[in-house]
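INTERNAL AUDIT FORM
Audit reference: QA-55
Scope: verify that the stored structure record matches its stored sequence.
Auditor: D.O.
Record contents follow.
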Amino acid sequence: MLKVLRDNLKYLSWILWVVILVFIAFVFVDFGGGLGAQRGGSSPAATVGSETVSWKEFEREYKRLESQYRQAFGGQLPQQLVEQLRLPMQALDSLVDRRLLAMEADRLGIRVTNGELRDFLLAQPLLTGESGGFIGGEVYERFVRSNGFTSTRDFEEAVREDLAIQKLTGSLTAGMPLDEKAVEANWRETNERASVRYLHVPGTRFAAAARATDEEVRAWFESHRDTFHVEDQRSIDYLLVDATKLRETLEIPAADVESWYRDNAAEFSRPEEVQARHILIKIDETRDEAAAQRAMETVQARLARGEAFEAVAAALSEDPGSRERGGDLGWFGRGRMIAEFEQAAFGAAPGSVVGPVKTTFGLHLIQVLERREGGTETLEAAAPRIRARLAGSSVSVP
């Protein structure tokens, strides 16, 4: 019984953290308080205590959520659904949660060394070349820009923050150590019971017969003065305004949205992208190319029998990063994938399967799901983000 109780009590740490973070969010978070609407100014998208969330971070997170939902809904994301999902607020909520965790990691002294950062980056397949080494500064910078970062320094700081948050959450999942006495005391408090018989007599029934004299009342008062001590008190009236809900009620004129879109056209340009799945059969020290080709023939045979590409990927692909998603790599632009893979993916028509394509990782079968030509994001697609930004500039929280 004590072991069961201990196993349950260790989750108290998560409950306490949730309460703390929610409290901090209500007290310190200001979504866009005192913002200016122009890009490049000093105005943040949100203020979390002494920290801020930039509009550039908001744009990256919004596009990530947008891509995620578009994949979930079969490549379609109507404007009505964007409004129902409240994507701008989802993006801000996600960034605020991340910033709260990062602040707590910093408060606890959780640090990520340059060595840890370097080892993590060099372990990412997208950042290694054919020889297994680093892809090089020029390609690395293109990769960083394609992910919405203005510099490699900003990208590495974001990765460093992610790793610190991972350390923090990892330490929380380790649980809370409890000694035997604490567990036993909690069990007794919860489970021990006593049987008591009592008689309840209302005091009002005898109140008329029990009269105290003025002298008795005064004497009792003098001997119990501390009981009647009253602290200084104030009577106040206040109005609590939820700035976030207030912004949601604001009506931003369509003309203002269109004007902002026109004045910041460069912000809405997007690169050519494809959405693809793949199945990887590795070539390494335990399997040469001939053996990998035989394994790939098994993959192709199952596809030829009519099995779904995602089902075969989940069963046979050796890419741990995408296998659980049926080989889905999501949307990616040029410069994100290794050269041979990128050339095949961007050269294939949507709905087709190409390969095997040989890279330094092994053999790939690639299924291209959809393709988006590069160009400028439409006003309709960008409107929710623009409204959120303009609403933030309209409401200032002192």
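Auditor finding: record pair retrieved intact. The longest strand covers residues 362-372.
Action required: none
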